[in-house]
Amino acid sequence: MAIRPEIEKLLKELDERKKKIELAGGEDKLEKQHQLGKLTARERILKLLDPGSYVETDMFVHHRCDNFGMLKVEAPDDGVVTGYGTIDGRQVFIFSQDFTVLGGSLGEAHASKIVKVMDLAAKVGAPLIGINDSGGGRIQEGIDAQYGYTRIFYRNSIYSGVIPQLSAILGPCAGGAVYSPAITDFIFMVSGISRMFLTGPNVIKEVTGESITDEELGGAKVHNSISGVAHFYSESEEGCFTQIRRLLTFVPNSNRENPPVHYSGDPLDRKNEKLLEIVPADGKRPYNVVKVIEEIVDDHDFFEVMYMWARNMVIGFARIHGHPIGIIANNPMVLAGTLDINASDKAARFIRFCDCFNIPLLTLVDTPAFLPGKFQEFGGIIRHGAKILFAYAEATVPKVTLVLRKGYGGGYVAMCHRELGADAVFAWPMAEIAMMGAEGAANIVFRREIEKAPDPEKKRQEKIQEYRDQFSNPYASGRRGYIDYIIRPDETRAMICRAFEMLWTKEEERPRKKHGSIPL
To answer: What is the mean pLDDT of the chain?
Structure first.
């Protein structure tokens, strides 16, 4: 069909303008981005989203800054590409900062583009993904940049628990810019290209005299294994996008929905004979709790979160009979599965995320207690440990607890005890549920009797066994109704599946209030 000349001219102008914007900072800067092992802002979006699904918004937005000669500075897309599309057919909203345009710096217009997609995501009820690659606030815009960051932080906060918010750090993210990702639900980082810090190496050198590189200060391994700021680590951007896509399979689009169900056909009553080999009956022998999780869940598929940090606590997503669940488990391979400051924080935040988005919780218990020591006490283990208690008690999603072996004292209470709201509590026959281990308890309860005995050591062993027979087993708790089911390890999957089947329609209310005051 013939197009009238005046229309053709307008369409040609539109195409030329779009091509110029898509060149971003120019071919030289795009090539430099590739030389650094990084994809460009648009390439990242197209790699992550379903082919052909991306729709760009605000392509023609441009700054209006007139300071320091900025009126003469071209800034295509104002340094951030925004829009929406789908991942596995589900709606998502996205922004991707463009380091080739003014170093991806954030100014008033840049922030307004991000704010617009955040508001749209909340209205529609769809996940928001932010790809961060920015030198920070645009200095030429001064307080307008500060204003822009604040608008974003506010929305990160008020939309928390409304829509899932994910942050991929695929370049520098420094100064005030780090707080937007920090408020979001999950942070993804890539080896060699991700950087996060409040004050960079130059400032640290000037103020403290310490010399440190960008990678040593704020690289992917630092924040995944030392600081606990990040949740996922990958070796490449493609690996990072795979993690994002996989995470989204477990979470709903918003808090208005339940998570997506995908039943693979793994039998509900599949036997777990391997559990009889994985977990030693001797409570002093360690084992990897991840292997227990993999044996129980659908298709042995467990998506672990924060696997490099606070490894005495394991958290992550899996499916039970097709339904996504969140799993929290003590890991006896590290610090004997004790609860410490970092493990408490790790578990509490994950529990709260799952509760926000209607994801049921499975808790696997094998802990001797909270980690003793003056550094834990000085660091506030009381305050941090209280977070996990608060998070479990506050959660209204279905909660199932399984005691594998040790469930001692406050450690067991913190791991979703019956009175913290567990809907179904299971235990294996080798479970030891008591205020403390039999050895320590016998030394305290029967101290005088042991001291007066002709053979103190023999008497001590007798009293240890007496305490174990009376308390350090699941039957004492079963008699009082604290444990609902004592089960064989090889029937664990079947029993847990049936418990969750019973609980899928659970509804539970909490007293009306603005919000609780969690001990942060």
So the answer is: 92
